[in-house]
Amino acid sequence: MKGYPVLPAMQATHGRASSGGPSSSRALGKHVARAEAEAVIERAKVAGVGAVASQQVQAIDSVARDALVSQALLLELRTSLAGSDPVVHEELGFFCDLARMAKSQVLADLMATLSEHTRRP
Questions:
Q1: In this predicted structure, which of 12-16, 84-88, 101-105, 112-116 has the lowest mean pLDDT?
Q2: Is the pTM of this model over 0.85?
Q3: Which of left, alpha, beta for 120 (phi over 0: left; psi -120 to 50: alpha)?
Q4: When comparing pLDDT for 121 and 89, which is higher?
Q5: Which residues contact 104 (CB under 8 A, 6 or more apart)?
Q6: Nearest Cα to 49, choosing from 37, 61, 57?
């Protein structure tokens, strides 16, 4: 049977007429059951990877959303506190910039951590 794999249960009869007895049927049934079980396991692994990826995206979105909202609040507070004084506005801008950079780093660290966990076997 060139081009087709020979199942171990069929190797003993390969090239000659099979007796078709109950033991060869049982062996073939075991191989089919094992192949089906492996397929189910593989589908479960793929579904698990998809679920993990979805949770990772949700975590990143949550942190990014929190960073955006808090940064907007800081900028609004800066404007409110500084009023029309450009010097105070600039001074408070320094703290807003620091906060923005720190939030960016937190998000980058989260993404690196999630990426690292994804690569682990």
A1: 12-16
A2: no
A3: beta
A4: 89
A5: 67
A6: 57
Residue 56's contacts (CB-CB under 8 Å, 6 or more residues apart) are 114, 118
Whole-number average pLDDT of the chain: 86
Q: Could you report the per-residue pLDDT of 57-72, keeping only the tens digit for each?
A: 999 999 999 999 999 9
Residue type present at position 75: L
Instruction: DSSP for the chain, please give it.
Output: -TTSPPPHHHHTTTTS-----HHHHHHHHHHHHHHHHHHHHHHHHHHHHHHHHHHHHHHHHHHHHHHHHHHHHHHHHHHHHHTT-HHHHHHHHHHHHHHHHHHHHHHHHHHHHHHHHHH--
Alpha-carbon distance 31 to 1, whole Å?
19
